[in-house]
């Protein structure tokens, strides 16, 4: 009987995965992007919201971003040749900003650390480390610390 109980406990513990779900990953990225997006300053016409470099964030993340008056464009819409001064939307004189979620690390089922940044181009960029926690009503940024500045 004890052997059966021990095997059952091992099976039950093994089935209780603490791996984050895709929905958790989307929600954590969206929480960080919402904080960065709300900090956009200046005469910015568009924001490109990217992950791990030049890739666009998934639609599941974009759907969770609180709308501002700044248009969201695809990462490929930003003209990289203008990075010496200010980022611009391709084929336009309109200024842009690039927000990027660079790394998401889950430290527990209810906590994550996120490296993210924004760039207006040239020497006008900042990187941050975010601490994000899951509460009853979803994922929330609880700490933002500047990691680097250019």
Would you give an account of this structure?
The chain is α+β, with helices and mostly antiparallel strands and 150 residues long. It has one domain (22-149). Helices cover 23% and strands 42% of the residues. Strands 1, 2, 3, 6, 7, 8 and 9 form a seven-stranded mixed beta sheet that branches. The longest helix has 17 residues, at 22-38. The radius of gyration is 19 Å and the shape is globular. Residues 4-16 have low confidence and may be disordered.
Protein traits:
two-stranded antiparallel sheet; seven-stranded mixed β-sheet; alpha+beta; 150 residues
Low-confidence stretches: 4-16
Helical/strand content category = alpha+beta
Number of strands: 9
β-sheet strand percentage: 35-45%
Mean pLDDT: 82
Helix content: 10-25%
- Largest sheet properties: 7 strands, mixed
Gross morphology is globular
Radius of gyration: 19 Å
Q: Write down the secondary-structure element order.
A: HHEEHEEEEEEE
Distance between the termini: 65 Å
Quick overview of this protein structure:
With 150 residues, the chain is an alpha+beta fold. Helices cover 23% and strands 42% of the residues.
Layout of helices and strands:
Blueprint: H1 2-15, H2 22-38, E1 46-51, E2 55-56, H3 59-62, E3 71-73, E4 78-79, E5 88-89, E6 96-108, E7 111-121, E8 124-135, E9 138-149
Parallel strand pairs: 1-3, 1-6
Antiparallel strand pairs: 1-2, 4-5, 6-7, 7-8, 8-9
């Amino acid at each position: 009987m004890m052997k059966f109980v021990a095997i059952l406990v091992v099976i039950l513990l093994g089935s209780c995965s603490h791996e984050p779900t895709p929905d958790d990953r989307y929600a954590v990225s969206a929480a960080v992007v919402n904080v960065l997006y709300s900090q956009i300053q200046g005469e910015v016409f568009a924001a490109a919201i990217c992950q791990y470099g030049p890739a666009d964030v998934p639609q599941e993340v974009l759907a969770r971003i609180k709308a501002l008056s700044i248009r969201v464009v695809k990462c490929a819409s930003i003209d990289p040749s203008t990075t010496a001064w200010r980022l611009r939307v391709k084929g336009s004189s309109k200024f842009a900003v690039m927000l990027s979620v660079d790394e998401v690390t889950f430290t527990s089922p209810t906590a994550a650390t996120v490296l993210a940044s924004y760039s207006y181009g040239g020497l006008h960029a900042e990187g941050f480390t975010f601490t994000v926690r899951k509460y009853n009503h979803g994922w929330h940024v609880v700490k933002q610390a500047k990691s680097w500045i250019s």
